[in-house]
């Protein structure tokens, strides 16, 4: 089968032929239809410091996908050939304390699809049936391909109640934009999104952000005054991983405010913990999705009319992967999707 492979240490990927993945008794074989390009894939493509530590070559990257089940292992009963599926990219041990308690997203032995094992940038991918989400209702293929990052957005956005609340989102990358759409759909009063990229801020406006703020030109405090907020934001969603973003968020929260942090910093940075203590703020780290409560919420949100199509700004054949990765790396648009049928 054809696959994009990180063949050796160094930048770039190679489109080449590799064997089809094996299928164990508890696994399913999936014919890949679409894949999304994630920030993790960009790290692997560039082979930066993180990738050098995290991956071993050769590797087929990719963990955002939708496909059709074409084969099942002997012990698989809940997934059938012909099902349209996406996949949970965190493969867990199933035996640790958290897994046994049903908190699989907290498994300390998690292995990442497309990072710790071959992934979905290929014509076929194999996954344990327990990691497969079957789409029981119609869904756009491009949207189904980005269920993994959509899940990050939903997990973060719904970590705290948002009905009637004023929400600040720092970072208008694709997940931040999706989070803005989710909290607006879920009943937030004011949704403010910050970034320094005007194209991305425009995407945030399209999905329902009441104020999309270029923080290279205006402050969050100025945005508060424009909206008439007297006490600060109730809920903060930190999506950028930037130290200045978290510091500004902390400074603009109401007393008792709650912050969910998905953005992953590249290095340690100082935080005003005196402000966090005296303002009685709650900080919660988010990584991935809750299996599978978040996935259920995603499907229900789409059934309820949530529209994610504006978030997808690039569509390419897998053969044009170099152009697709270039657009994704530019950091000015939304999600980029590869079509494995074209």
TrEMBL record:
UniProt xrefs under SUPFAM superfamilies: GroES-like, NAD(P)-binding Rossmann-fold domains
Swiss-Prot/TrEMBL cofactor(s): Zn(2+)
Residue positions binding Zn(2+) 1: 38, 63-64
EC number: 1.1.1.103
Residues that, per the record, bind NAD(+): 175, 195, 200, 262-264, 286-287
GO terms classed as biological process: L-threonine catabolic process to glycine
Location, primary (coarse class): cytoplasm
GO molecular function: L-threonine 3-dehydrogenase activity; zinc ion binding
Domain Alcohol dehydrogenase-like N-terminal, residue spans: 24-133
Amino-acid positions noted as binding Zn(2+) 2 in the UniProt annotation, renumbered to this chain: 93, 96, 99, 107
Keyword set, alphabetical order: Cytoplasm, Metal-binding, NAD, Oxidoreductase, Zinc
Catalytic activity: 2-deoxy-scyllo-inosamine + NAD(+) = 3-amino-2,3-dideoxy-scyllo-inosose + NADH + H(+); L-threonine + NAD(+) = (2S)-2-amino-3-oxobutanoate + NADH + H(+); 2-deoxy-scyllo-inosamine + NADP(+) = 3-amino-2,3-dideoxy-scyllo-inosose + NADPH + H(+)
Compartment(s): Cytoplasm
Cofactor binding notes: Binds 2 Zn(2+) ions per subunit.
Quaternary structure note: Homotetramer.
Name of protein: L-threonine 3-dehydrogenase
Protein species of origin: Streptomyces cacaoi
Source species taxonomy: Bacteria, Bacillati, Actinomycetota, Actinomycetes, Kitasatosporales
Primary gene name: tdh
């Amino acid at each position: 089968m054809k696959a994009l492979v990180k063949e050796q240490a160094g930048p770039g990927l190679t489109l080449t032929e590799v064997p089809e993945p094996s299928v164990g008794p508890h696994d399913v074989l999936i014919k890949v239809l679409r894949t999304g390009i994630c920030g993790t894939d960009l790290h692997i493509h560039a082979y930066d410091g993180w990738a050098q530590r995290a991956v071993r070559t050769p590797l087929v990257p990719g963990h955002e996908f939708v496909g059709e089940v074409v084969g099942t292992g002997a012990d698989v009963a809940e997934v059938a050939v012909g099902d349209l599926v996406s996949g949970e990219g965190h493969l867990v041990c199933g035996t640790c304390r958290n897994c046994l308690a049903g908190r699989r997203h907290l498994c300390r032995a998690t292995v990442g699809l497309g990072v710790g094992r071959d992934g979905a940038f290929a014509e076929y991918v194999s996954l344990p049936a327990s990691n497969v989400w079957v789409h029981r209702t119609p869904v756009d293929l491009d949207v189904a391909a980005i269920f993994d990052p959509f899940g990050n957005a939903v997990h973060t956005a719904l970590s705290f109640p948002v009905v009637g609340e004023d929400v600040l989102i720092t970072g208008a990358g694709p997940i931040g934009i999706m989070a803005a759409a989710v909290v607006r759909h879920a009943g937030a009063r004011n949704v403010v999104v910050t970034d320094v990229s005007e194209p991305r801020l425009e995407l945030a406006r399209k999905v329902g952000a009441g104020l999309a703020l270029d923080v290279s030109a205006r402050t969050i405090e100025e945005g508060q005054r424009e909206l008439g907020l007297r006490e600060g934001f109730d809920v903060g969603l930190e999506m950028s991983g930037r130290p200045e973003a978290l510091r500004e968020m902390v400074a603009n929260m109401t007393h008792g405010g709650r912050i969910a942090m998905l953005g992953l910093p590249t290095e340690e940075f100082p935080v005003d913990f005196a402000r966090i203590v005296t303002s009685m703020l709650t900080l919660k780290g988010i990584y991935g999705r809750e299996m599978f409560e978040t996935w259920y919420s995603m499907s229900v949100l789409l059934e309820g009319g949530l529209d994610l199509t504006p978030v997808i700004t690039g569509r390419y054949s897998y053969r044009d992967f170099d152009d697709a990765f270039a657009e994704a790396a530019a950091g000015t648009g939304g999600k980029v999707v590869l079509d494995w049928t074209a």
